[in-house]
Amino acid sequence: MDYNNIIVGQHNSITTITINRPTKLNALNKETIQELHEAFKATNKDENTKVIILVGSGEKAFVAGADISEFSSFSAKEGAKLAAKGQDLLFNFVENLGTPVIAAVNGFALGGGLELAMACHFRVASDNAKMGLPEVSLGVIPGYGGTQRLPNLIGKGRAMELIMTAGMIDSNQALNYGLVNHVTTPEDLLPFCEKIASKILRNSPVAISAAIKAINANDTDGINGFDVEIKEFGKSFGTEDFKEGTTAFLQKRKANFPGK
After folding, report:
1. Cα-flanking dihedrals φ and ψ of residue 169, to 5°?
2. Angle, helices 205-217/225-236, rounded to nearest 10 degrees
3. How far is residue 245's CA from residue 247's CA, in Å, rounded to a whole number?
4. Residue 53's closest CA among 124, 130, 146?
């Protein structure tokens, strides 16, 4: 599929999705959100893809925010619809994707950009990255899951301060807060993410998908995460990957998971 605002490439079972609006610092507009949805949906169905890396084009920004020009004149009803549609189409969609998604934060990740990074399963940042949710400086609040995911990742007090001050933190502070898992140089960012991805590739994609579902269940209203874990654990025993994994262990060889 041809895209106007993103680039999709695959190598060694790793698909890299690059948000490609460098003149806009990769800001998210409606078209980009739709294209990202389509790319994630297609990639998740691709049996040759086991890990996805999401990155921004250029050296300045992962995603510098949402495209404000698209919604600056919206009514309250239109604003609520914008948030609901965006969360459903992209942010919640990515969070619940069965294929693991690594955010390679290569510069500014502000507003919707940080919200997108937080929707990914974990984050690696370059040492020039800056992160924040500056929405209150525009008279609005984060609308793509920022008020929910940021406290989960860094704690309520720190999230309150970061949102209320509309401030930015650098990559080292983000690492200290637990917002990102690792910090690298800009040059090493993608190779480092690919190194982590290669470790993920050794394991059962079926089990990884089940683990994502169980982990996310802990943050879902009305769902007992322990119950989901028990269910997914039990289902694992009926998979070909379980048979291969346990057989390989007992035979003292490397597992060759069929992904079924």
Report:
1. -120, 150
2. 170
3. 6
4. 124
The order of strands in the sheet holding 108-110 is: 61-63, 108-110, 130-132, 168-170
Q: How far is CA 215 from the centre of its chain?
A: 14
Residue pair 102/54 in contact (Cβ under 8 Å)? The answer is: yes
Enzyme catalytic residues: 115, 135
Residue 139, SS3?
coil
Helix ranges (H only) for the chain are 30-45, 76-86, 92-95, 112-119, 146-154, 156-165, 171-177, 189-201, 205-217, 225-236, 240-250
Residue 33's nearest CA partner among 112, 102, 134 is 112
Residue 225 is predicted with a pLDDT of 87
Q: What is the pTM of this model?
A: 0.95
pLDDT at 1: 77
Residues 164 and 234: their CA atoms lie apart, in Å, by: 44
Q: What type of residue is 33?
A: I
On the question of pLDDT at 218 being above 90, the answer is no
Q: Which of 135-144, 170-179, 222-231 has the weakest average pLDDT?
A: 222-231
* Predicted pLDDT of residue 25: 95
- In the three-class reduction of DSSP (H, G, I as helix; E, B as strand; rest coil), residue 145 is classed as coil
Distance, in Å, from the CA atom of 207 to the CA atom of 92, rounded to the nearest integer, reads 20
The DSSP-derived string for 173-214 is HHHHHTS-SEEE-TTTHHHHHHHHHHHHHTS-HHHHHHHHHH
Q: Are strands 122-126 and 101-105 parallel, antiparallel or unpaired?
A: parallel
Domain coordinates of the chain in residue numbers? 6-201, 205-250
Closest CA to 17 of 46, 55, 44, 50: 55
Amino acid at 240: E
Please, which residues have CB within 8 angstroms of residue 158's CB and are 6 or more apart in sequence? 177
Q: 6-201 maps to which CATH number?
A: 3.90.226.10
